[in-house]
Amino acid sequence: MNAHLQTSRVSAALERTGAWLLAFLWVLPLAYALWAAIHPSAYSAHFTLNAPLTLENFVKAWNAAPFARYFMNTFMLVTMILTAQLVLCTLAAYAFARFKFYGRELAFVLVLLQLMIMPDVLIVENYRTMTAAGIVDTIPAIGLPYMASAFGIFLLRQTFKTVPSELDEAARVEGAGPLQVLLKLYVPLAKPIYIAYGLVSISYHWNNFLWPLIITNSVSTRPLTVGLQIFASSDQGIDWSLIAAATLMTSAPLLTAFLLFQRQFVQSFMRAGIR
Amino acid sequence: MGVEGDLFHEPSGEVGRLLPRSAGDAVAAASRRSNVVMSARWATNVNGWLLLLPSAVLLVTFTHYPAVATFIGSFFSTPKGARPAVFVGLDNYQAMIEDPIFWQALHNNIIYAVSTIPLTIVLALFMAVAVNAKLVGRSFMRLAFFTPTVLPMIAVANIWLFFYSPGYGLVDQVFSVFGVPAHNWLGDEHTALACLIVVAVWKDAGFFMIFYLAALQQISPNLSEAAALEGASRWYFFRRVTFPLLMPTTLFVLINAIINSFRLIDHIVVMTRGGPNNTTALLLYYIYEVGFKFWDTAFAATLTVVLLVLLAAMALGQFIFLDRRIHYQ
Q1: Deepest of A23, A192, A255, B228, by most Cβ within 10 A of its Cβ?
Q2: Do the chains contact at A124 and B210, CB–CB below 8 Å?
Q3: pLDDT band at residue B3 under the 50/70/90 scheme
Q4: Which ipTM was obtained for this model?
Q5: Residues B187 and B138 in one domain
């Protein structure tokens, strides 16, 4: 065997070991959370094979804070945002893709501006706007800044542009109006993009934290992320088992969906990213 | 094109068929045609703007207006009680330049960005190459790498908080095996920011991996076969062929990583609250603190202007990059 082949074998083995080590490090936080959540607190930082199993932590965490309400709030928030985004972005994307209206180019650049200057950094002014509108501490106030999404508009516009104009013209000759053409032709053809955008949007808003933290201040409006933070930083002290259980609970719906539809998720994030 | 095309063509075709027999007819037909064209153009404009209107209203209200209002607000004082905001010129900017915490936050943010970004990119690339090769357990690896992307930052930050806790935290437990004494990782000015950088890299590397993976799968296997026949080493092939071909992806990932390093501060709220001694205060965290803990909205607006200018510079960079990508096609 020549030396060249040998070095390449060694480097391949190194690469393999490195990859396995990295994968191990990457699952460690989740694996630890699972360990702490299903064992009594005494074992939260003490790792032995004969540690007794328990679901007690989940029960305790669930009863220690109004998590049912937080789940409800997050669910309403995510549904509201996604519904509004799908409708608004579809209409705007259709306008940009198929109507040569006056000021289109300028309007498009102004829309794209939101890709860089996101609502996440305009917290001070947006809080003032919500105060003026008298809707601080409501679920719509959490969602409103995100409902018109430059990202969604851009993604759908690119997709709508790939629909052949001949199909559009044929539908119009049949006597269909602009909205009918949109619903019967464009929307069905863009289904994979809607799914991709939907998954990315749900993940984003399920996990969003800073703006909801600022704009909410009561149990009836707080989403899970804010509820979890209040739970973890308050009088629970440092009971890591409870915090781990609460952490797993709040991530469970997304995590389960991801594990079940892994390929779909990865493809969606990819599709939504490559624009 | 479609809408406009058929609104234009059908009526004008009709007019064309009515061959004008006299000068008067010709004038009438021409004016009718221009009327049809005018009304078609008008319909396109009205329809286009009506479709855009709902999004435009929300975008203007929550993106454009607040961006402009932030800028204007930075020249006024913070209203206190019955005292309304008054014009103070550049006073807020003066105060900002004299504020050591602002400079520290900016400095922290730059350190955070220039360490997080290259680390994330190198790891994402390594992950993609590993997962793309025919390794044992690569579907498990892909799962392990990507999972942090779908988890809430706020939740995983709590787990990392435990990892870093002095004495019994996982980091100290592992280090104690090697005889390293216990250390208050998040409480020490020298290690706190590094701890946050590790969390950020862990959260984002798997997300960026999928873009590299997609790009790697576009590269023809013929290239690596040819290189192997020529006797090129794997590393040489990666350096001279694969990496240059991945350049557009790297630029895309780079821009997104830069934005994330200025936008995401959830883990700071959980793990350090900007401490110890402001060593982990990033720009947006400082804005949050000034705006919503000290309620000094004018000063928070001034700080936001700096962040907006940084993001706008990035936007300009992306437009240039997008332009270049169009030239490639």
Answers
A1: A23
A2: no
A3: very low
A4: 0.88
A5: yes
